[in-house]
Specification:
Number of helices: 0
Radius of gyration: 17 Å
CATH topology: Jelly Rolls
Helix content: under 10%
Number of domains: 1
C-alpha cells in the first residue's frame, strides 16, 4: 500500500523509484547531487520535471540555454523548475553544490519544454487551527502536462497537512479521480521528525519521517504531521490518466 525509503547522502545521480521497483504504476523519482562539472541526460519515454532544492546551475535543452536554477534551500526560497516532454536531451552545468529532484511519468510527447521561475509559480496559504501550511503549485492542473501534477508543501511548525485526511485512489467522477502520489520530505531543523499515516479500510501504515526520505502513496488517506518547533517540507507528485485533483475526505474527519 505504501513504501518508505531513506535516500542515501551521496553525490551523483540516484534512481530511487520507478514502476519497475515500487508500488506505483506511473511515477518515477530520482535525485541528482553535484558540486561542479556537467550532467547530461535524456528524458527518454517520460515527461519529466526538474525541481531544484538547493544550489545553483545552468540548464540547457537540446544545447540551448534556457535559464539558471538557483535556490538557497526549500524553507527560505521558492522553487525554480523545468518541465520537459519525452525524448529531450538536456544538460546541467553546476555552479555550486546543488540538489535536484527529478520526477518522471511515461508520456507520448504532446507537451512543450518550459522553464518555470519562481514568479510564474502559484503560492497558496491554506488550513486553520493546527493545520496551516504553505502550498506551491509548480505543475498545476492548468499546466499543459500529460499526466503529472506537482508541487510543494511546508507545514507551519508543529502543524499537520494533507488534512483533513483525503484520498484520490478510484475513478468515481465527478466526485473522485484516480491519482497515485509520492512525497519527498525534508525537515527543519534536520534532526527533527514527522509522521505520515497512509490508510484505508483494509490497511493502516504509520511511518516516522526524517530528513530526505520518500513515501509512495498508491492509495489511501495520507495526513502528515511534524513535531513542535520544526517544519516539514515535501515535494508531492501525482499522476493519472485524468489530471483532475478532486480528493475525497475521510467521512470520520469531514466536519
Amino acid at each position: 500500500m505504501a513504501m518508505h525509503l531513506k535516500i542515501e547522502e551521496k553525490e551523483g545521480y540516484q534512481k530511487i523509484l520507478s514502476p519497475e521497483n515500487s508500488d506505483l504504476k506511473l511515477l518515477s523519482f530520482s535525485i541528482l547531487r553535484q558540486e561542479e562539472g556537467v550532467f547530461e541526460g535524456n528524458t527518454e519515454k517520460e515527461e519529466t520535471v526538474f525541481v531544484i532544492t538547493e544550489g545553483k546551475c545552468d540548464f540547457y535543452i537540446e544545447k540551448n540555454f534556457i535559464g539558471t536554477m538557483k535556490r538557497k534551500n526549500v524553507f527560505e526560497e521558492p522553487p525554480v523548475a523545468v518541465y520537459l516532454p519525452p525524448f529531450y536531451e538536456y544538460k546541467i552545468e553546476f555552479k555550486k553544490k546543488t540538489e535536484i529532484c527529478i520526477v518522471g511519468c511515461r508520456g507520448k510527447g504532446t507537451g512543450k519544454p518550459k522553464f518555470l521561475n519562481s514568479k510564474e509559480i502559484k503560492f497558496r496559504r491554506v488550513g486553520e487551527e493546527t493545520y496551516f501550511r504553505n502550498i506551491t503549485d509548480i505543475i498545476s492542473e492548468s499546466f499543459p502536462a500529460e499526466k503529472i501534477i506537482l508541487g510543494e508543501t511546508i507545514n507551519d511548525p508543529g502543524n499537520w497537512s494533507s488534512y483533513p485526511p483525503h484520498k484520490h485512489d478510484i475513478d468515481n467522477p465527478p466526485d473522485e479521480y484516480y491519482l497515485e502520489e509520492l512525497y519527498f520530505f525534508k525537515i527543519h531543523p534536520q534532526k527533527g521528525f514527522g509522521v505520515i499515516r497512509v490508510f484505508d479500510e483494509n490497511e493502516d501504515n504509520l511511518f516516522l519521517i526524517k530528513n530526505n526520505e520518500i513515501v509512495t502513496i498508491p492509495k489511501g488517506y495520507h495526513p502528515v504531521g511534524i513535531i513542535p518547533k520544526h517544519q516539514i517540507y515535501y515535494l508531492w507528485a501525482l499522476a493519472g490518466e485524468k489530471r483532475i485533483l478532486k480528493p475525497k475526505v475521510h467521512p470520520d474527519f469531514n466536519f
